[in-house]
Amino acid sequence: MEKIKIRVALAGNPNVGKSTVFNQLTGLNQHTGNWPGKTVEKKVGYVEKDHYILEITDLPGIYSLTANTLEELISREFIVKEKPDIVILIVDASALERNLYLLLQLRELIPNIIIGLNMLDILKAKRYKLDVKKLEERLNIPIIPMIASRGIGIDELINKVIEVYEKDNLDPTKIDYGELEEDINKIESILPENLEDYPKRWIALKLLESDPIITDLCKKKLKREDWEKIKELIEKNESNPIRVATARYNFIKKILEGVLEKPEKQAISWTEKLDEYFTHPVWGSFLAILIVALIFYLTFTLNNFLAEPVKNVLDFMGDKLSSLLVFLPNWWRDLLIEGVWQGIATILSFTPLITFFFFFLALLEDSGYLARLAFVSDRLMHILGLHGKSLIPLVISFGCNVPGVMATRTLEDEKDRILLIILDSFIPCVPRILVASFFLSIFFPKQAFFLLILLYLISFISIFISGKILRTKVLKTSFNPLLMELPIYKIPNPKLVLLYIWDKIKHFLVRAGTVMAFLSAIIWILSHYPTGDIQNSILAEISRFFSLFMKPLGFNWELTTGLLSGFVAKEATLSTLSAIYGVSGSELGKILLENITPIAAFSFIVFQLLYIPCASTVATIYQETKSIKWTLFSMGYSLMYAYVFTFILHQILSIIGIL
Amino acid sequence: MIKKLIEMNKGQKGRVVAIRGGRGKILRLAEMGITPGEEVILLQKSLGPVIIKVKDTNLALGKGLAESILVEVGENGKN
């Protein structure tokens, strides 16, 4: 028998255990993509039950359905345009008042709502008393009591979805907006039928809230005299938006009267006890430094542990592959092995690093500490024009930009995220520092340490300058001020942590791997065609051409080639220079000393620190933004910035004549 | 006594009187539970942001936001 599909949307505030519910419902039977044209993640999962198949779309965590954020806009557009059969709203029972705010907004859009009343264990720990039956009656909406972290209520939720789908006669209690009702009704009576599928009453409310998108829509679609009438009603009272919000809270208060009982003296929760230390101005900062340093150390130490064996396995696979492909002409085989496979192997070699990092990030996020870290580091990040949530992506980028770019997912705002992704690549990762150290030890052995510190300083200055430029000229945004909920602390759920890591790695390997295989093949062809010798390759020709532009920075064509191949992987800069000069190690040092001036060498170090991030990072940027435009912009911007910065530096150094 | 949220002492209770700023900002705060008349407790202060408790939720507010919220607190800093 053909299965019947029920389309379900899962909604809720952040930190209410919504992802837990989603993962408990669908397990591995889910896939992640992005909302069309957006950098926001979209998850869809499936549950089969009897002759039904539930297609569950996980909407982003939101506090409201105003068009304040991209997430809110995505959620409401999905509900209005895609018309899911049922919306499950997950609410945190221990903070019911604020959670029901979203319910009221949802109810104006769609009648078929089921409430998943989650976190009943926390409610109990707070010694709150909640009459679920009475709440259900007053709202006239089915409620499923849940403790999702322990799987309680999941089956009941599935059954209820099917039951509601079969009956299809929900009619939740109408929300009373008190003194605003009169204006709402007036606006409703003026509005035409069928305005882009939005219910009239909902539009009226959004107009009173001065929702920019709905206001624009009405301005365009309505007859002029109608719009003037409505405009008058909206603008009659300056504080209409807040009046709507207050009316909703008043309605909620009325609903909860005699339903929710709080004890006279509230028990001090574990979370509050821990926060005494974790958010303390002194202890909190101390603990934050300790925890971040520990994660950084563990991630890269554990990775070093596995790097060698993984490299051996990949080399072995490369050899095997090579012997399997003997039937191909040499040229083709080398392209496949040294180009395509090498690119894939490079991405694969990141697997241990990504795994360990996301393991720790999942622990931070799921335990609730990540929000505290953002709080503690907020002041410091303000100096760079960012806010607290940018700390982890930036810190981890010192090791490697790839997980750094991936970690920007913890930022909610799309523009904030893009800004941080671009800024991330100015953080010098370990391979870049290796290349810099090699040059420093040859040209400035005595001042190497001091200059290395200077390089880090240059990267901070670049983040600061670029942050300013991008915010004001390109993204036209100010980094949103910190406003976030501090969720309760909890022991991370192993199943969720594993799912989280698996989800990240799977996509990284597939998408970044594809891009990387492609880029690596191109660079291989360029550096081998036509003679197989890098000196006479197209790459060298291109470099000779580009070195015209690099002259003002003091680079010869050999250094330019090093930079071009450094795009594949930063450490390749050195091996390419070795290949061109035909020597390596200290011998390479000697030749470089003979051919390059110290000023050019220092300019080169700075340039390679700032120019386009490596191909793996570029592939990750594409995977995270899903936008060719932003990926190319990130490359172009960093290249241009590096050029201008190094140019000025080179001129100043040449004029004052130090080094 | 009326003062800015950021000027409250740690552990002090207050009632929101007004929020200064544009409509978008005011609505955003309202959606997170901060509306006029609502009781807030200041849980933690730092050099920049503060943590408050409002409607059973602990919220971290950046310095700028905490400066734009006016609260009524009891005399002598107690309430």
TrEMBL record, chain A:
Transmembrane residue ranges: 282-300, 344-364, 418-443, 449-470, 508-527, 599-622, 634-658
Keyword annotations of the record: Cell inner membrane, Cell membrane, GTP-binding, Ion transport, Iron, Iron transport, Magnesium, Membrane, Metal-binding, Nucleotide-binding, Transmembrane, Transmembrane helix, Transport
Residues that bind GTP: 12-19, 37-41, 58-61, 118-121
GO biological process terms on file: iron ion import across plasma membrane
Membrane topology term: Multi-pass membrane protein
Keyword Membrane appears in the UniProt entry: yes
Location of the FeoB-type G domain: 5-167
Keyword Glycoprotein found: no
Name of the protein: Ferrous iron transport protein B
Native organism: Dictyoglomus turgidum (strain DSM 6724 / Z-1310)
Automatic annotation (TrEMBL), chain B:
Transmembrane spans: none
InterPro entries in the record: Fe-transptr_FeoA-like, FeoA-like, FeoA_core_dom, Transcriptional_repressor_C
GO MF entries: transition metal ion binding
Sequence ranges assigned to domain Ferrous iron transporter FeoA-like in this UniProt record: 3-73
Keywords: Iron
Protein name according to UniProt: FeoA family protein
